[in-house]
Design a protein that fits this description.
Oligomer: single chain
Helix content: 25-40%
Order of helices and strands: EHHEEEEEEHEHEHEHEEHEHHEHEHE
Bound molecules: nicotinamide-adenine-dinucleotide
Distance between the termini: 7 Å
Number of strands: 16
Largest sheet: 8 strands, mixed
Number of helices: 11
CATH superfamily of the largest domain: NAD(P)-binding Rossmann-like Domain
Number of domains: 2
Strand content: 15-25%
Length: 321
């Protein structure tokens, strides 16, 4: 069994490899070759922690396993990341453990890869302004992945906690693009592509603030009750997701579904667009929205790449069980 540390994951897996792994597993999910098992997430009654499992099987790539982890709000005081996760991969032929892979860095990479897959397939080709809503840990990964899939001229951003906006400014400067902090009306009025990546429980953006032709990647809502955009905005958009079952239960679409504003059948798996079974965007005026809920197969796909590359480079520890 291989052990691949967080540091090794940072060294061996790049954004390009994460993008390819996530795009290909979304395709496999839509064609029925890969499927996610039901998610378990529990408040364990200790350390205020939420702990759970995301798991699945990709029959095409023979990737089987689970991501185990959750949220420990007291970790920051101990100098640790609040979100903690580890991926376990198993040999699909024998059930034997194949690898244990640090999941924290890979979670950020695979989440950013998902929104950038949506930007590649759904944004207007002439989109030039990227709008960022959210300036937490994930936001820098999101911005870097987006600019690698689409040529932007400018980045604008808003955050609930303005003191955190320096993360967006610093990342944009590192990338070499101009950045401006704006209010939400300007963000919606000027951005051609908007990524939302917050832990908000109330809508931040309203349908009236969004201009025709915008592509939104809503990435923060991954739990029941969270919400980043108004349900009317979801209803006004052509909606895509990683997995429909998660979108309607824990994703951004949960609210539009609960309010009866959209039907489950109106939500398309992004894999159908990748597989050319759905045309994706059909007009320059259409608002497209990707509800990125985060599925276990994304974690397994990037962890499997990490394990393979770490082994090839002699960077994995190998132990006999
Ligand atoms: P973080 O704690 O580093 O940052 C939180 C962000 O949310 C900050 O921008 C903060 O200002 C903002 N925020 C906090 N309270 C808010 C409020 N009341 N209204 C509006 N904004 C508020 O978190 P992170 O690691 O950057 O993750 C951001 C979100 O993305 C979290 O909700 C996390 O669960 C989610 N996430 C989703 C996926 C996925 O696959 N979809 C993967 C990883 C993280």
């Amino acid at each position: 069994m291989l052990i691949v540390s967080e540091d090794t994951c940072k060294q061996v897996v790049g954004r390009g490899q994460a993008f390819d792994a996530v795009e290909s597993v979304f395709s496999a999910m839509a064609s029925g070759d890969a499927y996610n098992f039901p998610v378990i997430r529990e408040a364990i009654g200790h350390a205020d922690a939420l702990y759970g499992f995301k798991s699945g099987f990709d029959r095409a790539g023979l990737v089987l396993g689970l991501k185990s982890g959750g949220y420990w709000p007291g970790n920051e005081k101990r100098g640790l990341t609040n979100h903690q996760s580890t991926v376990f991969l198993f040999d699909a032929d024998t059930g034997q453990p194949a690898a244990m892979v640090g999941g924290n860095h890979l979670t950020a990479l695979r989440t950013a890869a998902a929104s950038s897959v949506s930007i590649k397939h759904l944004a207007r080709k002439d989109a030039r302004v990227l709008g960022m809503v959210g300036a937490g840990h994930q936001s820098a990964f999101q911005m870097r992945a987006a600019v690698e899939q689409h040529e932007f001229d400018k980045i604008i951003g808003w955050n609930y906690h303005p003191e955190m906006l320096s993360r967006l400014a610093d990342t944009a400067s590192d990338i070499g693009l101009p950045f401006e902090a704006v209010d939400l009306d300007r963000l919606g009025g000027e951005a051609d592509v908007i990524i939302t990546i917050t832990s908000s429980f109330k809508p931040i953006l309203d349908v009236k603030q969004i201009k025709p032709g915008t592509h939104l990647a809503c990435m923060g809502t991954d739990t029941r009750g969270k919400q980043e955009v108004d349900a009317k905005l979801v209803a006004a958009a052509t909606v895509f997701t990683d997995e429909v079952a998660q979108s309607i239960s824990i994703g951004e679409c949960q609210h539009a579904i609960a309010d009866g504003l959209i039907a489950e059948t109106a939500i398309t798996a992004i894999g159908d667009v990748i597989n050319k079974k759905h045309p994706g965007r059909t007009s320059a005026d259409e608002i497209t929205l990707f509800d990125g809920t985060g599925v276990g197969l994304q974690d397994l796909a990037v962890a499997s790449v990490a394990a393979r590359l770490a082994q090839e480079k002699g960077a994995a520890q190998e132990i006999a069980l």
